[in-house]
Amino acid sequence: MESGGLPCETVVTATMDSTNRAFQPTVVPFLRWAGSKRKLLGKLVPYWGAGHCRYIEPFVGSAALFFAIQPKSALLSDINPDLIQALGVIRHDPAAVYEQARQYPPNKRAFYRLRALDPKALTPIERAARFLFLNRFCFNGLYRTDSKGRFNVPFAAQKTGNLPPWEQFSTAASVLERSTVRCGDFERILRSAVRAGDFVYLDPPYAVGNRRIFRQYGADTFGLSDLKRLGTVLKMIEGRGAHFVLSYAYCREAKEAFRGWSSRRVYTHRNISGFAKHRRRAAELIVTNVSVSG
Question: Is the residue at 56 inside a domain?
Fold first, then answer.
């Protein structure tokens, strides 16, 4: 259930390292996610502050910013039903999901056996544990489906690490308890939910020059027409007295779609072809109606 009547947020629990360059959140996501903004948290967190009463994220992914901020009230949503189902079950019964996921051998054979299962034929605990396991051991934390909606990302050839330690997993799950999770299209969710005092963070899949970007779920997940819808939704958010921060690829399409609001170009390192040894410095665009100092 969503909490009500809570005081507005004023504090972010996190630390900076001795060089004051790397943001180190005290709670980290338990999912791997292609396109995660973990490397941009130091630039994103300052937008959250006094006067924000609820956090909303309609393209939730691994929820890196949510876990860094640890709001007292949140609405997390996504169009991905497997992701939302897993978050909902983990929020209510993290121990059962974790114990079930630990039963699966962390090897290629177990991965493909689980991948071949129909998640709708599993219990809620089994389905969430399957999602967690496949996410931890698939290639580059991708979520991709075939034309029939079946998860088809291959097993990671290189070591991705095991399941997160129980303490880390349970701590994140306890923060997740403060949220409501919903599955649906970003525009429908936001139009039905946004109210004055909300803080909305949007990190949609990238659609540049009619090309699908590597982290899209399926063929029709997010395209250039959705950028126009997104621009209209930003006007709605502002009109209701709420704040937003949007992160997107720095490109002509985004600059045109989101002109009229404050924006800045920031840089991060992005893997090429999913391999850490092939990295490049990539520009991203942050668009917002929030004023921050510094």
Answer: yes
CATH at 31: 3.40.50.150
Neighbours of 16 (CB within 10 A): 11
Closest CA to 181 of 30, 58, 75, 70: 75
Read off the tokens for 237: 């958010």
pTM of the model: 0.87
Contact (Cβ atoms closer than 8 angstroms) between residue 190 and residue 242: no
pLDDT 10s digits, 89-120: 999 999 999 999 999 999 999 999 999 999 99
Where does the pLDDT of residue 282 fall: very low under 50, low under 70, confident under 90, or very high at 90 and above? confident
Distances (CA, A) of 40 to 22, 125, 172, 224, 283: 9, 32, 19, 24, 11
Q: Is residue 7 part of a domain?
A: no
Number of folded domains that form the chain:
1
- Quick check: is 6 in a domain? no
Q: Is residue 243 part of a domain?
A: yes
